[in-house]
Each structure stands twice: as C-alpha cells, then as structure tokens.
Design goal:
two-stranded antiparallel sheet
C-alpha cells in the first residue's frame, strides 16, 4: 500500500527521535572516578569541614575555614586547617584536646562537607559557563545543572579534562593540550547518559574542566518545510533524518532527487544520494 509523502516524513521524524545512540567514544586513558585518597585532601580557604566527636556532641558540627586558613573550634578557639590534610587536621585537634587536659583519648573524625576552595570549570555549549565550587561528591549531571544545562547547539559528547598536577593554581586547559600531555581525558556520551547509562555520570574532582562540545551543522535547502542549519547531535544521521529535521519535503519536493554539496579535499562536490546514506558535518 502506498503512503503519502507527508506520512513518510512523519514516520521519519519519529525514527529520528527514537534513533539509537552509538556506544560512547572510548576514553583515551583511564579516568579516576573518585579521588585517590580523600583523607589526603589539602584543606583550603572557604572549605567547610564536618567534624564529629564521639566524646562530646558539642564538639561536632560544620566549620568554615576562613581566609586566614583557620576556624574556631569549641574549647580550643582558633585552629589552623588551611594547608593541612584532613588527617593532619584530625591529628592536630586530638593532640590539642589532650594537651589542654580536656580528654585522654579523644575520638575525632574530620571530613569535607563542601569543597569551596576547589572549583570545576564548565565551558562550551552551556547556558552559564564559568567556575563552580565543588561540593561533596559532585558528578557530571549536577555540574551541568549548575551551568544551566546544555544548549540546543551542544553535541552529544562532553570531554572532561583533569587539573594538572604540577601546579597549585587550578585553571582550565584545552583538550588538545591535555591529550598531547598524556592526561587521562574522559569522553562522555550525553545521549547514553540521558537514556539512563548512569556509569557515564562520572564523579568530578577539583580543577576538572568540563568541555561541552558544539555540534557541527548540516544545511538543508530547497523543497523542505523549514530550510536552514541544523546541528548534528547523533553519531550517525541519515539523509532521511536530515530531511525530517527540516520538517520533511513539501508537496513539490521529490525524495528521489536529493543532492548533497560536500567539501572534499578543499573542493565542493555535488553528488546524488539515497535516503539511507549518512550525512557528514558541513553537508548541504
């Protein structure tokens, strides 16, 4: 039974929406999903410490490290924390409580409530790019939400570049620089993550840079309902799906006479294509 051209392209639009996503691009090197050793984290200004005492509930609470790298602790007054690891802060508190004669064997646990001295950088195709304070076990989805989510022009891939280990100054680096240096760059497939592949929702560390890549465009003109530029957000997009992005062909259009203008080795080439052929970035 023959179907109308409108019916064909309505089906094509549904096919485009339901198209399966190809597996995530393999990462170039192993990426550490969690900090190597949280206990060795070096405390910085504005970090919020979570201190728990098994001896006296009044000693338990959340304490913010001030700009002078100290915080006020019950019984002891000002205590230095900045520049020390969590282990060292814990040991220092225990020693001071013993030396001051408050306890013989105090049981103190120090952890990080908020990593405010640590930041992650979110750049690229997001609504509010910038530096954001790392809090708790921040993962990729939370970071993207802080940046206002991705833009319609975003590609289906995010690249996470870890901070350099040779400097105390945290700053974003380019993807090319990171890969050239052998850094463990992580590539995440956003489409898989949106479809429930939560293993893609990696944990972020202080100084990480999240690059939301921009999708490359195709250009659809002629006898289509909505001619214009459209981002390629899938790993494979066919001619039929490209036409569906433009609303399908008009009553005067002929799907058997679709042509593509493609740049090949710096030259424009015009070619006849079938509806199942794959499009490339920059195709018209």
């Amino acid at each position: 039974m023959a179907f109308s051209r409108q019916t064909q392209f309505a089906a094509a639009a549904l096919m485009l929406m339901a198209a399966s996503v190809t597996p995530a691009i393999a990462q170039t090197a192993a990426y550490t999903a969690t900090p190597a050793n949280v206990r060795d984290y070096v405390v910085g200004p504005q970090d919020v410490l979570n201190i728990t005492s098994q001896d006296d509930p009044a000693l338990s609470g959340k304490f913010t490290v001030e700009a002078d790298l100290t915080f006020t602790f019950p019984l002891l007054g000002r205590v230095r924390a900045g520049g020390l690891t969590l282990r060292e802060v814990e040991s220092q508190l225990q020693t001071k409580l013993v030396d001051e004669g408050f306890f013989k064997d105090p049981q103190i646990m120090v952890s990080i409530e908020q990593y405010k001295s640590q930041k992650v950088f979110i750049v690229g195709e997001v609504r509010s790019p910038g530096a954001y304070a790392l809090s708790g076990d921040m993962r990729l989805v939370e970071a993207l939400a802080l940046a206002g989510s991705t833009l319609p022009t975003a590609a289906g891939e995010v690249v996470i570049v870890p901070a350099g280990t040779d400097s105390m100054m945290v700053k974003p680096v380019s993807i090319d620089e990171a890969e050239a240096s052998g850094a463990p760059v992580m590539r995440v497939n956003l489409r898989e993550l949106q479809n429930g592949a939560f293993q893609q929702n990696v944990q972020l560390n202080g100084g990480d840079t999240v690059f939301v890549l921009k999708a490359e465009n195709i250009y659809v003109f002629g006898q289509v309902k909505n001619p214009g530029a459209y981002p390629l957000q899938q790993d494979v997009t066919t001619v039929l799906q490209g036409l569906a992005l433009a609303g399908g062909v008009t009553d005067r259009g002929a799907t058997s006479r679709v042509e593509i203008v493609r740049i090949v080795n710096g030259e424009q080439k015009k070619m006849k294509v079938k509806l199942e052929d794959a499009l490339l970035p920059g195709d018209t």
